[in-house]
Design brief:
The protein has 151 residues and is α+β, with helices and mostly antiparallel strands. The chain contains two helices and nine strands; from the N terminus they run H-H-E-E-E-E-E-E-E-E-E. About 9% of the residues have low confidence.
Amino acid sequence: MTVRLTRRNALEASVGALAMAAFGAISPVRAAYDSADLIRKFTGGKAPTEGKVKLDLPEIAENGNTVPMTVAVESPMSEQSYVTEVLVVGDGNPNGGMATFHFTPLSGAAEANTRIRLAATQNITAIAKMNDGSFYTASKQVKVTIGGCGG
């Protein structure tokens, strides 16, 4: 079998190589690095404490394109004690940051529901910032069986 190299084939190969080079630069290893940087920036370098944050995600996501997620934080949501922000990151997506939710004492409850896209099996971490400057966290691994935002 003989393959003829045409200008069209050469152009398609070049575009494919450029795309692989561009998208290959953002690997899951870099996303994990990005996630750690996002957390460090969000907390100002403080280590968040385990607890108070509940992260509700399925253990196995049959389709990474649409994974339901609920994040809730135990808080009285009063003027004296309330959640100001919750950051959600994933260590396996091309871009680690997934969502940031903002709350006030008038919010009533520190809870948010959404759907996220997961490129592959990965750890999802939620960090809650309290009005007194303390941070709480929870993590959960989600196994993705069909590709999401990564293919």
